[in-house]
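Appendix B. Chain record.
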Amino acid sequence: MFFYSSGTTNINHRSKHYISNLNIWEESMRAGFKKNVLPNTDKIRILSLFPGMADNPNSSLSRYISTAIREFGTENSHIFFENNQLNYSELIVALQEAEKNHESILLLGASFSYVHLLAYLQQHHQSFNLAKESIIFDTGGFKGKSKEVSMTDLYADLESTFKVTREQIINMYGMTEISSQCYDRNLMDHSENKTVYFDKIAPAWVKTQVLDTETLQPVAQGQRGLLAYYDLANWDSCVSILTEDIVIKNNHGFTIIGRAKGSVAKGCSITADELLQLQ
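Structure tokens predicted for this chain:
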């Protein structure tokens, strides 16, 4: 099995991650998802704004979404992105149904899936009042092919449109080249009645370091640098990955600042943006 890095163009220049045992990859995904996304429940209705494995078999995010629905989704969970199109009308019906029944849902998509969805809902004067235990799950970055958005603005729009609090929005950090994901810690903190932080935390089998962009030596806590990612779930490929993401690390985890200057914009959010521009 292999995963391609995101993007719909220049397929010959996309990285490949070969995986000999998907059981390890899926076990890593399940453990992280349960702890950080659904700490207090086993099942939730998942509405996906990104294609699943059937449409995108060599995407790690598509396998992630299909696995999440299989393992943690109720029977009425559904993927609304099929044949390279987001089915806005059916998604709106599902959201209205959940709102009417006071049913908690997990809305799952790449950042630019939400950018296009919010534009559509605004155009059609639609908004929703989601149940209080609902979750908006965001993955990917905030640079797309069509434009760049800020996390602050996007999340404010999500709060307003779906009548959720910032504590109900979680961002996941992952990439094709790694087998484990990092998550904002807010849902886990809230479930344990702790002070809520929005820094990202890694699972026990992942080590992160922040390295100086020039020397690649570790920087002091609180200083910016490149994220180095050591993932033991990559046991059969490449355990150590030097990313091009600039982060700051503190006592609660790390915060992503953006991409290093001169790095190539990439990620599932760009894929979603490219595809949705075609609609």
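Further analysis of this model is presented in Appendix C.
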